[in-house]
Design a protein that fits this description.
Blueprint: E1 8-13, H1 17-27, E2 32-38, H2 42-52, E3 55-56, H3 60-65, E4 71-74, H4 81-90, E5 94-98, H5 105-118, E6 122-125, H6 132-143, E7 149-157, H7 180-196, E8 199-207, E9 218-225, E10 230-236, E11 242-249, E12 252-257, E13 261-266, H8 287-303, H9 311-330, E14 334-335, H10 336-343
Parallel strand pairs: 1-2, 1-4, 2-3, 4-5, 5-6, 7-10
Antiparallel strand pairs: 7-11, 8-9, 8-14, 9-10, 11-12, 12-13
Helix pairs in contact: 1-8, 4-5, 5-9, 6-7, 7-9
């Protein structure tokens, strides 16, 4: 029986902006079927349920106790992920969770181990991996057309920090260490490791310059990859929007820009430049990448294969963020394998 005729039955937890995007994507993804929803505010969940044809539930526990629900999508504040994921595992539910995986590395390590022990599927919503320009850039790099890879520079920024309110959880420094690095920079960290392999060492700087919230709004992070490639990542919460990655080879440069698409500078090896041009996606309407992420999750639930973005993938992205924050405090570069070992990965995950 195919996934289209046997979709994974899901409950949606967290009905804000991104929860709405998940609902919209799920509605056009035949491999999943969201049937129930939960948010703490009764009026919000009733209105959401009416809009999307879901059944509202009065508590997360009620959703987990429902035998008809196979999986939960957790689109909730970072601080809630650990307890919500562990509760889902206890009840035998598969988990699709928003990034970051958890609020701390120690929590993330426990989650990854619990998932492995349970045999359940955990997938993390780093949906930017599914953008077609990124998939093509990955193919470009794997094909070697840029020549020997030397360095990468990247930036992902929004003015979102300028509109934060004191009532929001993102206002609190403890909830978003590194400010935009935790909230949006982590997406680019995932992309960079997807494209270029593991990051080995990090040096970072963060500052609060203009926003009212007592969190950082400007970050710069230097990266050394296990392959020897060097890189830069900027991430801001107070500038105009930016989302680009430039990978430098000794033959050509691959240039991804969310608002411009994929292009090439220089002379790529073996294939002409025109073969690598990809138009931009619409980040204002990121339904296609979310569809792909949900379909991949459903495939794993039904076939028990590894998800595109596993808990361990998300954990290493979190480690880069924590390393950058630690580096800002000490003024020293931070080694990622040592950081993960100190946090508990020596236990064998």
């Amino acid at each position: 029986m195919g996934l289209d005729s046997y979709p994974v039955r899901m409950g949606l937890v967290g009905l804000g902006y991104w929860g709405t995007r998940i609902a919209e994507a799920a509605a056009v993804t035949p491999q999943v079927r969201v049937t129930k929803c939960f948010a703490r505010a009764p009026a919000a969940r009733e209105a959401f349920a009416t809009q999307y044809g879901y059944q509202p539930v009065a508590s997360y526990h009620e959703m987990l106790e429902d035998a008809s629900i196979e999986a939960v999508a957790l689109i909730t504040p970072n601080r809630d992920h650990y307890q919500q994921i562990m509760a889902a595992i206890e009840h035998g539910k598969h988990v699709f969770v928003d990034k970051p995986l958890t609020a701390t590395l120690a929590e993330g390590i426990q989650v990854v181990q619990a998932v492995r022990d349970s045999g359940l599927i955990l997938a993390v919503d780093h949906e930017c991996r599914w953008e077609q320009p990124i998939r093509t850039l990955k193919h470009m790099l794997d094909s070697g057309v840029l020549g020997r890879l030397l360095m990468v520079d990247a930036n992902v920024s929004t003015p979102g920090g300028l509109t934060l309110a004191p009532t929001e959880w993102r206002w609190q420094r403890a909830q978003v260490p590194g400010g935009p690095l935790t909230q949006i920079g982590i997406h680019h960290i995932d992309l960079l490791q997807y494209l270029l392999g593991p990051i080995r060492r990090v040096q970072g700087w963060q500052k609060r310059q203009v926003i009212e919230a007592p969190i950082d709004d400007t970050t710069v992070t230097l990266l050394e990859f296990e392959s020897g490639i060097l890189g830069y990542l900027g991430s801001g919460y107070a500038s105009a929007r930016a989302a680009w990655i430039r990978v430098y080879g000794d033959a050509a440069i691959g240039i991804y820009d969310r608002y411009e698409g994929l292009s090439v500078s220089g002379e790529p090896l073996n294939r002409p430049t025109a073969n690598w041009l990809v138009p931009p996606v619409s980040y204002a309407d990121p339904i296609l990448p979310i569809q792909d992420a949900l379909a991949d999750f459903a495939r794993c639930v039904r076939n028990s294969g590894p998800p595109e973005v596993s808990g361990m993938d998300a954990l290493t992205a979190m480690a880069v963020v924590q390393a950058a924050v630690q580096s800002n405090l000490t003024g020293q570069a931070v080694d990622i394998p040592r950081l993960l070992q100190a946090a508990g990965t020596a236990s064998g995950i």
